């Protein structure tokens, strides 16, 4: 298959004027393996049937994640489910926002382009970056390549994350959320 056309994307990105994303002074150094942000997270935690994603801080403020597609992730026989691929990108994009900016945020909008089928047994190499910041609005994008860092692009995604206070998690989720984040080795924002 030839390289997927960028023409599938017609709208500008980020969609509003933004400032360049300045990495937080405490952002992990390039080469750092990023720890699980919450041990019960479906994307990166030690959850049965979860995605078990692992991420590393790269050069040039890029975050590299890997998603190994197993039989538990199928939609059609032998192929990854698109919703789970979207989940993998939500995780990878969130990891880029959380680790680079160290600002607690949740996904407001997530857009995916599925360019090639992703087979069971393959590994998707996802590279994510923060594209811009406009107040509480944090824009990020990613692409996933099949089998290797320089493999064919199979999926692209972009997302708006919205910065929230920690009361977002304690009010809407678990009142002990802050403690639970702190029990994990590397949380969203200590
Ligand atoms: C190391 C860390 C690794 C972390 C990895 C985690 C990966 C997983 C991340 C997730 O999956 S988070 C879970 C899924 N997301 C949610 O549950 C969020 C649910 N939605 C909300 O809680 C609220 O809608 C939200 C906090 C996103 C926004 O509500 P707010 O009342 O705080 O803000 P508001 O609605 O005023 O929006 C703020 C700005 O964002 C804009 N906005 C919000 N949602 C939007 C949207 N969907 N599309 C476009 N713009 C949007 C909104 O227009 C506005 O723009 P302006 O400031 O210019 O007026």
Summarize this, please?
The protein has 190 residues and is of the alpha+beta class. The chain contains three helices and seven strands. The radius of gyration is 16 Å and the shape is globular.
Provide structural commentary.
This protein has 190 residues and is of the alpha+beta class. The chain has a single domain, classed as Thiol Ester Dehydrase, Chain A. Helices cover 17% and strands 29% of the residues. The protein contains three helices and seven strands. The protein has a seven-stranded antiparallel β-sheet, with helices on one face. A hairpin with a 5-residue loop joins strand 2 and strand 3. The longest helix is centred in the middle third of the chain and has 20 residues. The chain starts with 32 loop residues before the first strand and ends in an 8-residue tail after the last helix. The mean pLDDT is 92. Bound molecules: decanoyl-CoA. The site of decanoyl-CoA has 19 residues, from helix 1, strand 4 and strand 7.
